Structure formats: C-alpha cells, structure tokens
Amino acid sequence: MKKRILAVGSVALDTIKTPFGSVQDALGGSATFFSAAARFFAPVSVVAVVGEDFPSKHLARLKRLGVDIRGIQVDKGRTFRWKGFYDYDLNAAKTLKTELNVFQNFKPVITPEHRNASHVFLANIDPEIQMSVLSQIKKPALVACDTMNYWIESKRGGLEKLLKKVDIFLSNDSESREFSGEYNLIKAAQALLAKGPKLVVIKKGEHGVLCFSKNFTFVAPAYLLETIFDPTGAGDTFAGGFFGYLTKAGRLNEASIRKAVIYGSILASYNVESFSFDRVAGLKATAIESRYKHFRQLTSF
Ligand code: AMP
After folding, report:
1. In this predicted structure, what is the pLDDT of residue 1?
2. For an engineered disulfide with 236, which of 30, 41, 96, 150 has Cβ 3.0 to 4.6 Å away?
3. Is the CB of 98 under 6 A from ligand 1?
C-alpha cells in the first residue's frame, strides 16, 4: 500500500501575543502546523473546514508546500479563531478566546481516495469530528491523536471513546494530568495507557518529551535553542515530525519511536523560531538532518 497520512484538525486564524511581539489573524491551527512538518517524511492530506473569510493565499501556501488541501472545505461563515497569549513562561499558552465558528457544524465526508489513507493523524479538534474521520478510513496501519484542555473539559466522553481506537495518544503535561486525574506524569501515563493506546507521548515544551509504552520509557530533552519567539503550534509541529517519521519508517517499535521523538523535537525547535509556521515552511531537509546530528552530540554520554 502506498503511504499517505490523512490529518484532520483545525485550520485557523490565530491572534497571539508573546513577550517578543504580537500577530493578528495569522495562519494557524493544529492541522496546519502538523502538515507543514509531516510533509518532510510522507505525503499529507488535510481534512478541515474554513470560512469564506479565510484568505485564499493561506490555502495556496499550504498547497505550495506540497500538502494536499482538497479535503479543506470552504463553508459559509467565519473561520475557526483562537486568541491566546504567553507571558515569560513560554510553556503555557493562555487561551483568551476560542471561536469554533464553521467547525461547529462540520460533518467531514472523506473522499474515496482519502479513505485509503495508510496513516491517520487526528490533530487537536472536537473528538466527535476526530472519530467521524477515523470511522471513514478503511484500514489504517497506524492511528494517533492529540487533544487539549478545551476538549478534555467539554467532550471527555468522546475522548474516552476515541482513545480505545488509537495506537498513539499525544498531549502536553497539563492536559495529561487533567485527563488522567494524576499529578505525577508516570502515573498519568499509566492511567492514559489503560484507556487504550499502545503509546502515550507527553510533551513538556522546553523541558522535552516523555514517551511511555507498556514495555519501555523514553525521555528526550527539547533541542537547545537560544531564541524562542512564539511557541504556538510547537506541539502540533512535534506531532508532524514524530508521526511523519513513523509513517516513513513503516514500523512501530522502540527504535523507530525513539528516532521519531527526536525528529518531532527538531521540527518543533524550528517552529518556535517564528510566528505561524514561517520558519518550518522555509526549511530544507538538510537543516533537519544537521540538527538531528547536533541533537545526538548534545545528548550522547
Ligand atoms: P499548540 O501550540 O501546538 O498546542 O497548538 C496551537 C494551535 O492550536 C493554534 O494554531 C490554534 O489555532 C489551535 N487551537 C487552539 N485551540 C484549539 C481547539 N480548541 N481546537 C482545535 N485547535 C485549537
């Protein structure tokens, strides 16, 4: 089977303030960041919805990156918008406003071609939409999902159901604690593994990543950076590098998972160096490999 990732998630207009600058209605959304990173490893098709106000230049930009945007539907109404800010703790985004807009009534219909996708990534969006997409895919070899506190608080039941159907669950540290009811992250991961997935990946921003399966644990720091500009999308970009590499590797074992975590961390390190996905969009594959080598030097002992 030819490999292709089908990703569903938000395609958004973000208004963000960080200690270093601000931006209004920038191209964002979980599926956007995910696909900009995953495309380095495998072909990616996005399923999402935007409103009539969504600038066509953003869609053109995704297309130029080689992302298949035929599954991004344009509906009457306003595009999903997220407004947030960061103070000097860049690990924690503070949400000021979430406007679901056209996502509120989105009923994804997957094309016959996309139903054959080999790999499915359910990026952060309403778990009912994630489930609806997953149920339309014929025989996915690997399925992963991400989420955030907004959905843990408003759609916990839907998320619980989804976790029974995915191989890999990704979330950040505070979401893992909130969803599991455990403060300690080892206990939180065990509780999340008990909900269904084979692998739980906990993102800790600048403090790196913890990866838990029933058989092994892998811990990696974040790539060391001098300049962090805007952390928005770092989690989704990590997921793109991580899941993209696993798709390319074609197997889910300890060695491929360890490498996938490093590729995810490297893509995320490029993402935080600019607003939106500007840095990742302009990236060359050689730059990824050079940080990969440097990562190895930094962490070998
Ligand atoms: P990250 O920084 O990787 O956690 O993700 C940031 C992106 O998530 C932003 O571009 C937002 O547009 C998007 N986002 C924020 N809240 C939600 C939500 N409730 N559902 C889906 N996407 C969201």
Report:
1. 72
2. 30
3. yes
**Count of structural domains within the chain:** 1
The predicted-structure confidence for 170-224, as pLDDT tens digits, reads as follows 999 999 999 999 999 999 999 999 999 999 999 999 999 999 999 999 999 999 9
Between the CA of 234 and the centroid of ligand 1 the distance, in Å, is: 10
30 in contact with ligand 1, CB cutoff 6 A: yes
pLDDT in tens, 56-71: 999 999 999 999 999 9
- 168 CB less than 6 Å from ligand 1? no
Give 73-123 as a DSSP string. EEESSPPPEEEEE--S-TT--EEEEEE-GGGGG------TTGGG-SEEEE-
pTM above 0.90, yes or no: yes
CATH code for the domain of 99? 3.40.1190.20
Tokens of 36: 């900009």
Ligand 1 pocket, residue 264 CB under 6 Å: no
CA of 71 to the centre of ligand 1 (A): 19
Our answer on whether the CB atom of 12 is closer than 6 Å to any ligand 1 atom is: yes
Exposure on the CB side of residue 248, measured as CA atoms within 13 A: 17
The protein residue whose alpha carbon is closest to atom 14 in ligand 1 is 29
CA 293 – CA 277 distance, rounded (Å): 23
Domain range for 165 is 5-299
